[in-house]
Structures are given as structure tokens and as C-alpha cells.
Write a structure and sequence with these properties.
Elements lengths: L1 E8 L1 H5 L3 H10 L3 E8 L3 H7 L9 H8 L4 E9 L1 H9 L12 H5 L8 E3 L3 H11 L9
Antiparallel strand pairs: 1-3, 1-4, 2-3
The structure holds adenosine-3',5'-cyclic-monophosphate.
Adenosine-3',5'-cyclic-monophosphate (CMP) binds next to loops.
């Protein structure tokens, strides 16, 4: 089925100037950018976005990292977009990510791991809505 997923290019990858290289991987895999903007998240924004992880031991470090610089929030659309994006990203921990994945190629550590992607249809819907009202998502 055609799905939508939320991608975030994290501060480390934006700082490395690889936004275009990451977008090219999405496009080559048949995913379309249907909404996008750059934003420097506030602490409140990052805590709200990652609210599901609030009780996890890594929550503070994750939020601290996500507010170190601007990110690209992007909605991707395509056939099996959620799984496709997760395959392109590779494992959360870049040390475990398969060769040729975004995290293997661009990430440094489990927090500075270049990209975020929604993990399921329900979370994708919530995550997309966190950043984009429906009228700013240009399904095509
Ligand atoms: P992301 O897909 O953005 O979702 C939550 C983030 O928490 C994850 O990527 C990692 O960057 C970060 N994180 C740090 N430690 C862990 C961990 N042990 N397990 C999962 N995510 C972690």
C-alpha cells in the first residue's frame, strides 16, 4: 500500500552537509518528498516528539542531541514507505547498520545517528501531524 512516513535528518547529518545525498537515496528508492522544512527544535519540541521514550535511560541525551542544531523534517510517500525508509536507514546503532545504509555511511553514534524514521503506520500519522498540518502535505 502507498504509505506516508516521517523522516528527520538529524543535526549531525545537516552539519555534515548531506541533506541532498540522503534525499537522493529516498528518491532513488521511489519515495517522494511531499512536505519538508528545516527547524531548530526547542527542548519542548524535542521532548514532545520523543514523548514515547520519556522513561527510557537515553531520553535526556537524545533530546540534548536533537536540539544541537537544525534538522530537516520531511514527509515521504510511496509504496511501503515506512519499511522502505527503515531499510534505507539501517539499524538504529550505526555500528550494527548494514553496509550501504544511511546510518552506516553517515552516522557516528546511537544518538548522532543521522536520521529518524517512523516505525509503524500509527506512529507515522502522529509524527507527521506533529510537524505538518494536512494542507502542508502535498500528496502527488
Ligand atoms: P530514533 O529513530 O530517532 O528514535 C529514538 C532515538 O533514541 C534513536 O533513533 C536513537 O538515536 C536514540 N537512542 C539512544 N539510545 C538508544 C537505545 N538504546 N535504543 C534505541 N534508541 C536509542
Amino acid at each position: 500500500a502507498v504509505e506516508r512516513t516521517l523522516s528527520i535528518i538529524k543535526p549531525d547529518a545537516v552539519a555534515k552537509n548531506v541533506i541532498g545525498e540522503i534525499y537522493a537515496r529516498f528518491e532513488k528508492a521511489g519515495l517522494k518528498v511531499i512536505a519538508a522544512r528545516m527547524i531548530h527544535l526547542s527542548r519542548n519540541d524535542a521532548e514532545g516528539f520523543y514523548a514515547v521514550h520519556k522513561t527510557r535511560p537515553f531520553f535526556k541525551d537524545l533530546v540534548d542531541f536533537m536540539i544541537t542544531g537544525p534538522v530537516m523534517v520531511t514527509v515521504l510517500e510511496g509504496e511501503s514507505a515506512i519499511l522502505k525508509n527503515r531499510e534505507l536507514m539501517g539499524a538504529t546503532d550505526p555500528k550494527k547498520a548494514d553496509k550501504g545504509t544511511i546510518r552506516a555511511d553517515f552516522a557516528q553514534s546511537i544518538d548522532a545517528n543521522a536520521v529518524h524514521g517512523s516505525d509503524a503506520p500509527e506512529t507515522a500519522k502522529v509524527e507527521i501531524g506533529y510537524f505538518f498540518p494536512e494542507h502542508q502535505v502535498y500528496s502527488r
